[in-house]
Amino acid sequence: MFIRPDWPAPSHIKAICTTREGGVSLAPFDTFNLALHVGDNPDNVATNRQYLVEYANLPSEPLWLDQQHTDLSLEISETISNDLSSASLTQPPPVADASWTMKPHCVSVVMTADCLPVLITNKKGTLVSAIHAGWKGLQKGIVGKTIAEFSSKTDCSPNELLVWIGPAISANHFEVGQDVLDAFTSKDSLNKAFFNPIKAKEASQPPKYLADLVGLVTRELNLLGIKQVYGGNLCSYSQSELFYSYRRSGQTGRMASLIWIEPSL
Question: pTM of the full predicted structure?
């Protein structure tokens, strides 16, 4: 049911990524779908979310976000977490594609089904963050902007940060058009290295590329001075028994990637 990051985070930093196994949702959401916005039965989603809290021994209900491929991040306080989490099934969640906190008990979470889930902590274990980075959010700078936001309010320097990239669509399966290539190369021409041209069957066909999201985000992190980047080797598209994939299935569920600071005893 859970995948745990293989990274040298402090022992009191807890992080997991769910798989599609172990829940009650029916096809095409079978079985551990955690998203309310995909057309699944809300009662089944509520049950799955309760299973998540119980099985993962979470210190609180995760702060679910309304992810819209923005560059917006949310700082979680204990008050915000309690207020929004208690209303998570009855009121719209906040619009954001990342959250971060320095407070124990508060669970930062993002949902994905091909996009990049990026989890961050620091060597001291005083900060955690979860980022949802699809190609649109990545191009808008969601990763760098989130890191800049918490860096401006904390004493975290780039060389103190640890990053884990969870299951996402791999470069072998993420076909995109010229517009996506242009969006990234307009920011940095060296991003072109992460787009592999696909040979067209006919000369009249528009150009297509295989895009390497993991490569793009790793390069961005490295340019920010963050060298300790882990994960990125799980493919949501090809590993269908474990993961949901929007590109593969269309209507489908969502996995969750969560991170929190374990409360002191």
Answer: 0.93
